[in-house]
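ARCHIVE CARD
SHELF: 3
SLOT: left
DATA:
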Amino acid sequence: MMTLLVLRARLQSLYQKHDIYMKPVFKFIIALVIFLTLNNTIGYDDRLKQMPILLALSLLCAFTPSAVLLLFAGVVAFLHIYAVSVILSAIILIIFIVMYCLFLRFTPKLGVVVLAVPILFYLKIPYVVPLLLGVFATPVAIIPTCLGVIIYFLLRIIQEAASIQVTVSLEDTMTVYSYVVDGLKDNKQLFTSMIVFSLAILITWVVWKMKFDYSHEIAVVAGCFAIILGFLISSLKFNTADEIGTMIVGTLISGIITGIIQFFHLSLDYSAVEHVQFEDDDYYYYVKAVPKINVTTPQVNVKRFNTQKTQIPGKHLKEDVMLEEDEFEDEE
């Protein structure tokens, strides 16, 4: 345990010293992963799949707010879809504009969440998002989480609709429009994911704010239980039992990842809890103080000695004599 605490202290110290450089690096990596995922999912335009363009966009997103990353991702997705279907790109553009305006109005600082949900869906661990948001955010984070779920299922519908051969006639336009809208409106998995993720965020956040011991750790467990129970009920209702195993394993992995991140962010020592009471002119206060576990990194002190090999008269053996740096006089 002490080894983990020392490691955490060193990582925190390293991040505090170099956060001005590490934040752009992390944002660059996230942006690059997002653009690569878009190219692998709906990469219909080969020009946008060139590495110099990806690096340039990722570098620009590294030094701009998260809302800009969301905007660029939407533009790249639109251009990919435009390369295969003008009608479909127009429909998607309208949907993106509505979602983008809704997002900027309520949660402008959580742009990465909207893009993280579909990416983690492809990695089979989207449950990390509601658990982390329940721990580190507020219930307002439900909005970008639901938008991220919509984007994921929208991309899946786009992949299916792109194979439909249509023209620019009004009849074909309405056919594609109906296909996309009905695919979203009648998608039971979409609404189930939105409801379960929203409940997981609320349950995790409520338990996290409670005052009993180990509430932070129990909050993550409660969130995992809510996710598993929610999807189990939906799988029994919609007959999707083939996905239960993947969901449970993904939820457990997500809980472990959330617990690790929580440990490196904050660790409390409940064995040293103190209850303090004091008063002022208007109120009498009962305060519960839980100390944080903070350790200092061990300092290694190295003491140097000068070594000299001397030959003692009358003997043929040599031995190392440790000489301190103090001055001394030879005997006459």
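SLOT: right
DATA:
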Amino acid sequence: MSRKLERRQPSRTITQKILIACEGSKTEPIYFNSIRNELRSPTLEIIVLRNQGKTDPGNIIEILIEKRQQMKDEKRWTTNDAAWAVFDGDEHIEKSRTSWENAINKANSQKINLAITNPCFELWYLIHFQDHLSQINRDKLVKLLDKHIPDYDKSMCLYPKPLKELTNQAIQRAEKIAKQIERNQLYEYSNPCCSGLSKLIISLLGLIS
């Protein structure tokens, strides 16, 4: 009697987990989930959390803390793992500087990594294509982005195409913005900024800065 042969599935040994909570419900989760799906890493697990309709930075950080504690309780969290909060700057800083600073301090005290874009996440998309070092609002930023990605929409999946091949340039431009902020002695999360985001991308893609 013949036996049906089955292909053995490759073993998967997770050595690191990266937990990401995003302010946006479309743009950021689509981007990070696309990176995860493209990588299909056997050793890295990327977990993108739903924001549950809570977009305030303080709430995003609380979602991360709760999920991380759950994973610790389940013995699924190790010292190699990392938690990242991804959110915008401008609206939240203008709405309540006190709440903003409380959220930043809470993240730092809880060892939550921050990836902050100011004015919005679309700045990260834009600097894949061009330098941008001057202050800008959301509407003008999207108009600039539209020149590179016609009819841009928040629900578009832009990874791997067209962003993947331009990622190194985006990282270099984000670092240039950070150096300008430091050189001019500006607030760390000034407009524009992609503070921490390039570091997150480097860790996800296993790049060397």
